[in-house]
Amino acid sequence: MPIEPGVYPTIEPDTALGRALVAFFDVLELLFASGTRGVFQAIVFGGCAVHIHTQTRGSADVDVEVASHGYADKPDIVALLNEDAYVFSDEEGVTQMLELDTSFNTTLAPLHEDYEDRVIRLVTQSHVPNVEIYVASALDVAISKLGRFGERDQQDIQALLQHPSVSVEAFERLAREAISYYVGDETRILGNLNVVLNDYHRSED
């Protein structure tokens, strides 16, 4: 960050969770509406990003990389986002909520250095042009999930590999590049990658 000005693909959420994710950031409009505090940018990862791309599952936690390019302090932004859980109703009318995961950090998982080039901008209802919400690409979310690699993460990766924008060849190539400079147990992450590729090819047979 900052994400350089440019034309990014957009996606308009059409599910209750997707629309709630957009509304989750509305609390920042008052902070940035005057234009005197610069630009706020966020990139969503985790289960919410998986849902935006695949609609396969939901998540109560909002994993997000946040940055302010101007005069608003990052701790103030995090405090606003973390002040209250965002409550909404899902398609069945069941009350759900979204909460900021304050422990999320992009350095905790493998992530390709060019991930910002592939972000997708969420179409929001905000009339404040300097509040910009992005979602990490399906490919980069899949790579990031090689880190924790629980059962749900593995299911998410397989769902993301079925996304029309993702080729398994590009996933493997960029994942290996990301793992090569990942600060962590490289052997373990490479093993996770091999499990993913084996499962993917087995499902394609």
Give the SSE string.
EHHEHEHEEEEHHHH
Total of DSSP H or I helical runs spanning 4+ residues: 8
The termini sit apart by 40 Å
Q: What proportion strand?
A: 15-25%
Helix content range of the residues, please? Answer: 25-40%
Total E-strand runs: 7
Shape: globular
Q: Which sequence of strands runs across the widest sheet?
A: 1-6-7-2-3-5-4
Integer-rounded radius of gyration:
17 Å
Give the count of structural domains: 1
Structure overview:
This protein has 205 residues and is an alpha/beta fold. It has one domain. 39% of the residues lie in helices and 18% in strands. It has a 7-stranded mixed beta sheet with strand order 1-6-7-2-3-5-4. Strand 4 and strand 5 form a beta hairpin. It starts with 9 loop residues before the first strand and ends with a helix. The model has no long low-confidence stretch (mean pLDDT 90).
Summarize this structure as a short list of keywords or feature phrases.
7-stranded mixed beta sheet, about 200 residues, single chain
Topology:
Elements: E1 10-11, H1 16-24, H2 29-32, E2 39-45, H3 46-54, E3 61-69, H4 74-81, E4 86-89, E5 95-100, E6 120-122, E7 131-135, H5 138-144, H6 151-161, H7 168-180, H8 186-204
Parallel strand pairs: 1-6, 2-7, 3-5
Antiparallel strand pairs: 2-3, 4-5, 6-7
Helix pairs in contact: 5-6, 5-7, 7-8
